[in-house]
Amino acid sequence: MTATAGCEKKPGSDAGESRDRTNAGVGNLLDAPIVLLLIVGSFLAASTVFAKAAPSFGWHPVGLLQWSVLGGAAGMFAATRLAGLKSREEGSGEAVASRRQLLVYISVTGILFILPNMIAVTAAPKVGAGFVALCYAFPLVLTYAFAVVLGLQRFQSLMVAGVIFGVAGGVLLAVSGKTLSADASLWSVLALSIPVFLAAGNIYRTLKWPEGAKPVDLALGMMIVGFLALFLFTALWKIPVAPAEWTGEAVTLLAAQTAIFGLQYGLYFRLQKSAGPVYLSQIGSVAAVVGLALGYLVFNEIPNAAKLAAVGVVGIGIVLVTMGQRRLLRAGR
Predict the structure, then answer these.
(1) What gap in Å lies between CA 18 and CA 194, rounded to an integer?
(2) Cα–chain-centroid distance for residue 310?
(3) What is the SS3 assignment for 289?
């Protein structure tokens, strides 16, 4: 009897173990870089579509972006604190200099985060969600180029060829907007600066990652700085930050965009820490494909021959960069 008594389980223990296994399975799934890549890239494309839809629901795109960023940060903070996550390791003994480094880091990342988002949400209604989504395909090749110049990654011929194809794709994408109005053409050129900011952010976050900082805290800091920059910008330029009318549709759009930002950037830094800047930059490739599909399904944006050619050329560039990166990994670099 004593032997069997020692094997007895407490009531509900099986259910508890099952829940633990389920939570562990979800956690392991979200630790997989490819899963994070697909989720973050798809959210990036969806936010572009929401930006184009904003005027139809009475929102100025920048006004919607401002409150979505704040709401996403608030939701992320509440979720992580309820889950019991701590900002710093116990007994880490952070010095004042480290706190200053953290402040500089979140300030720079906040600006590099909000500038391309501001351009994207403002350009999307003028040049199309599909066009803006395609602009997100280029940070991969630019991130690699910056990494080679800064000595973060070794020169590799296949990857360099991929960069060249990426530049060619950018030229084709620019040509695809030649029939736009003068105002829209200007926004198409500005939209092509999005990958430059994103690539710079990818490299900076890796180079200057504060020691001991958790991804979620860096994401929170980045979003708060982004909100403050947007608040100042909308105030100076007198951009309306509320919808023309508080309809159910306007509230729903805000809630959806807020949820996307909270989830997207909660996973964004997690992906960067686990996979590095070059792999992270592939979210733009996912966003480009998903964004073109959403642009067609939601707004009936039919890509012209130049855009389709740009997709193909950029795709070749991505394949070459990926193949080159795998060769470097096999060589132990």
Answers:
(1) 45
(2) 21
(3) helix
Q: Left if phi > 0, otherwise alpha if psi is -120 to 50, otherwise beta: which for 302? A: beta
The structure's pTM equals 0.80
Query: What is the chain's length?
Result: 333
Per residue of the chain (333 residues), give pLDDT as tens: 444 444 444 444 454 454 455 445 555 677 788 889 889 999 988 998 898 899 999 999 999 999 999 999 999 999 888 876 555 444 444 443 478 889 999 999 999 999 998 998 888 888 887 788 778 878 888 888 888 888 877 888 888 888 788 778 777 766 666 556 666 778 888 888 998 999 999 999 989 988 888 888 889 999 999 999 999 999 999 999 999 999 999 999 999 999 999 999 989 988 888 878 888 888 887 887 788 788 888 888 887 788 788 778 878 887 887 788 778 778 765
3-state secondary structure at position 87: coil
Q: Tokens 């200053």 belong to which residue?
A: 100
